[in-house]
Amino acid sequence: MTGYVGGLVFGLSGGMVIALAALFGVWWERKVAGRIQMRLGPTEIGPAGVFQALADTIKLLLKEDITPRQADKKLFRVAPFLVFTPIAMSLVVIPFANGWAPLDTSVGMLFYLAVPAVSVIGILIAGFSSGNTYATLGGIRGAAQMISYELPRTLSVLAIAILAGTLAPVEVMARYEWWWFPVSLLGFIVFFISSVAELNRAPFNIPEADSELVAGYFADYSGIRWAIFMMSEYGGIVATSYFGAAIFLGGSQGIGGVLGVLLIFLKAILLITVIIWVGWTFPRFRSDQLLTLAWKVLTPMALVQIVIVGVIIPWL
Amino acid sequence: MNASSIDRITSDAGEVDAVTLKITERTKKIATDGTPVDELVVNVGPSHPSTHGVCRVITHVDGEIVTKAEPVIGYLHRGVEKIAENRTYLQVVPLTDRLDYVGSMYTNWAYSRSVERLAGIRVPERAEYLRVITCEMQRMASHMMSLGSTSGDSGATTAFIYSFDIRERVIEFFEDLCGSRLTYNYVRPGGVSMEVPDGWFDDILAWLPIARQSLSELDRLFFGNHIARGRLKGIGVLSAEDAVSWGASGPVARGSGVNWDLRKHDTYSVYPRFDFDVPIGSNGDAYDRARCRLFEVYESMRIIEQAIEQIEPGPIKADGIPRLIAPRPGDAYDHIESARGSLGVYLVSDGSPRPYRMKVRSPAFCNLALLPMLAEGHTLSDLVIVLGSLDPVFGEVDR
Amino acid sequence: MAVRSNDGSGAPPNGHIGALEHESDSVLLHINVSDEDRGGVGGFVDSWKSVFAGMKITAVRAMGPTKTVQYPHEKYAVSPRWRGALALKGVLGRDEIPIIRDESPVYNAVIRDLYDRERLPPCVGNCPANVDARGQNYYLAEGMTAEAYELVRERNIMPGVLGRICHHPCESACRRNYYDEPMAIRPLHRFAYEEYADVREERVKVFEQTRDQQVAVIGSGPSGLAAAFDLMALGYRVVVYEKERAPGGALFSGVPSYRLPRDVLSTEINGLVDMGLDLRVGIEIGKDVPIDHLLGEFDAVLIAGGLQTSRIIPVPGHDADGVRGALDFLKDANWKGDAGVKGKRVLVIGGGNVAVDVARCALRTGATEVRLACLEGDDEMPCHPWEIEEAVDEGVIAMCSMGPHEVLTTDGVVSGMKMRECLSVFDEMGRFAPNYGEDYAEVECETVVFATGTAPVLHDLVAGSDLVLNERGILPVDGTLFTTVMPNVFACGEVVTGPGSAIGSIATGHEAATSIHRYLSGASLSENRTDRPVPVYENYQPARLDGVEESRKRVKMPMARPEDRRKDFRQVETGFTHLEAVNEAARCLRCQSEVCVGCTFCARTCPDYAIQVQRVDDPGQRAITRYDLDLSKCSFCGLCAEQCPTNALTHTGQYELSFFHRDLMVFDHDEMLRDCGGTRATGADAHTQADAEEAS
To answer: Does C62 lie at the interface with A, CB-CB under 8 angstroms?
Structure first.
């Protein structure tokens, strides 16, 4: 019984965290993108428009939840949650403070790499169930892309795991040393790029591809279901950034308390900003180019990284 | 494939509207027929972010590969040529604004040249210079639109905004000049409608170096980018022979290495007085077409600078043009190099103050005809790139 | 051709890709836009470099200024060029048109100011003396003929005279030319004169002499009288000396009476005398009275002597009996009514207006055959086209492209003329350089009249003063200020300008009067003296009247039949009736008056048919009854405002018009006359009014 209550409390608070992360992420993205495009971004609601995303969310909640007639209704309705849940679950292993993660497990890194990948099923279902050619193509593209990027992403994290000798992110953060960063730089780049691809963010937003597939797999979604896709995207960005900050950048680096929380937060913000910056700078890849990049560039790079670490380890 | 295997996939434009794809139904079809259905019809448009207006492309895809792309046009048909028969010669000018709404100055000018040829009107030199200056600025604006949408189609929204930044400034200049931002109604039979405001030329000359700088920045950001080059190169390759035989003109033909620019080869107005080059591509792909436009913007800037240097005070309208032009019976054709290619207007007069017939030779229409040939064999993502590289404006295509 | 960088600034436009390829060619210089990626490791490095270069560019832009316009906080200032909703400045029946009327010394400045503000009607601008024809038409249409006459007389001195003989540059400039036919401005001058006869006695206004300075004017031609009129109006005492027995100068001795009845001339000059002019006829300065005497007695002297003698081309036989000068001939015909050509054949040499006058006079004095030979082709004759047209109607035989070669004589008496073909008159530079061909023709005639130029005779006049003539017998005069070498002597009229029009002479008279006034009041002569603004409105193509709309055509001036008019010196044009004149005056477009006259040109040119205009034309209550603009149709093309001859229809900066009721989109003229405040988006303004209407 306690388990159920605890799970409920934990799930709700996780949902709130993701919602807050999405609100902040949307606002931050619009501000950064605005500046890049010589605009101001949102300015009207709240100081510097910070509550714009909240207002948009309220609007989305109030909008009609449309299910297209030709859609497979059950799958169509359930798909957003299939995308959202794995992303939300991945947040439990993120070390938000020094020595603390909601779920401090010894296989945290594996958990983080494995669980969000399940959301590809949700994307596929969303695409197919919409009964729309654009959405179908988007779903297929999304599946192909996410599966191929799992490999370099996992391999890149492996280097750190070898260096730290553990799979628990909290432990990695505790054992982090400054020279890990130059040594694992290659891996970090591979991790970063493949994470962006995993999140379907520009320049890898091929499943959405607003100029080709209009909005890809969520073209037919509206209202709150669309907002859930949106939240899972931003939740994913936040999770990836925190994870990258913890694993590759040392997280809070052994500093406890509020300062440590602030430090890892700042590092995560830095990564979020870079994701946004990259996304608003480059054109989109084509599907075949994306796969070429994954198999011909990123995977070899990740393997080279493992070799580098493997060579260094005996000298320690 | 067996076309009867799935009733929705048919080339008949009328039926494709009903294309729906239900996985269950589809699997059933395969199961009962035993024929593999490997083609999907994607109805791109008429309302789609990358069709640059209201074009509909019925696209058959095999996976991602386009096997057939069939443009359906006419959604923006307003019967301008027919309406013109019921308007006086001056009343037609606002209609021509609405043909090529990205380059209104060109349609104004082509029409005005035809009327002038028909009625034997001589245009004052200052008006010719003003026409050249405004039309070269229009070329900048139009090409920035095209480059912006090419980058937007390939997902680079920021490059899109940067090129629209340049276009916006040109349009602000036009707003200062004639009060309008899109439908200028500026070039008229006999001259131009308004004298330039004070300091207009100085503002342009002061802005051009800034524009060059931001253009070169755009060049590095987009055309220099590895991803963009990968997206554009080798896409929609058009051979020079095909370009000529399909009647392509403008940057589409020049991208394929066809050296054809009416400003040089059937020169008109005061263009012989300017020193400028014609950018020519060699591969005929989307990249070369886009780069042709980019370099033409540089050349336009050179022409503008020279024209502002040479222009002298004088009248801007031919003396004594009656308000009701009624040319002698006969016909006239004249064409100019618009941002999209050879834009011509053919006019027949029966001696009344209204044209007996007007026909617009629209380059965008001729260039759009290349789409099926160029898009086949590429992926769906490249279809929008090919369409964008042809730079169609549907006001002009559909008329 | 040298290979150079593409943008002229030295830097290749693409920093990332290698140098541009330039293909040199003698005619064209092409740029090859294609560039290839490097392969192998180099290409790999390039691709990563391009990634970071792109990120650098966006980062720099992100740090730079933003270009967001925060609407409506940062509102543009309204530009007059913005083509927003339309507004009217005034309408017929509610607003009066401005009358151009000011005293002579500042009149030019007024005209200049109107011209700079684009408020000058083309007819007024094209008239050398800037007669306010628009004001005349306005008064006539409203039935105020006396006011019309007096307004025209301010600048025109003798509306009755100029109403008959003027070459009416105003009508050439009339904006009606663009639509149908020009206004009949000159016949309306004449009509105003004829109507004024009834009230002339009671409306005489004697100019009071308010200054004690005196001015002498030598010559009573149009220019001298114009200067005298201006100076009298300014309060000077003016004495005009005329050497002939009757005043009028060239108007009397040069203009045939079939064009200008002598009673009209005398009525007009008597009118001036009634207003206080001291006119002394029969006194020739230089012969009867030396100019020194005048210089001693008067504070300023104005020489307006005109042209006195004809030039005769020195061809062989030019001194034979029967060869005459045009002025001589006309003077005889005008003074005696007999030029000595009864029953003779006359050949007139020259293609100007004087030559046509001579030819027509010769017909009327009994010549059996009149030929007119000129160097120019029939389409380039210097005379006014209607003159030669009327002359040919009467039986004059025009021989174009013929130059005089030799006068054939028998015993010292003219028996004919040998003519030579003329191929071209002017050279490429536009100078007079006739090019003769090899064809000759002989014309039999008893009298040859040379109308090939006139010259002043000033030797006697200037004798004994400091004035010096140049070697061609011409007095050097400043062309703008009309001053001579002596500070108190001025000159005007054809003495200065050479052969010209009557209205041109009058204009110089006004200018000379201004100079004299400034001289006598001690002001600077040259200050603010700009050249007269003359917009050129020539070479218009006549508009076609058929096909589109029924337009109100010009009222035709009634003319005597050609076979009747060649017999005597009665006037050819018979004048407007009252109704004709009022109708004709009402055709005036009131150009640049900023008052809508309901000409409907805006409605006719609108491509969307958004404008509807109705005008009531009953005399006395002429008004616009309806001016509707449907803004839901309007596409803001601006053709209507451009067509508007009065500039009453203008664009505002008003956009974003949205209304609850669609019929509020139709603006009537009350709405269009309302001041919209000039903001860019004034939906709110319009809304409040609409709401108020709805509430009531």
So the answer is: yes
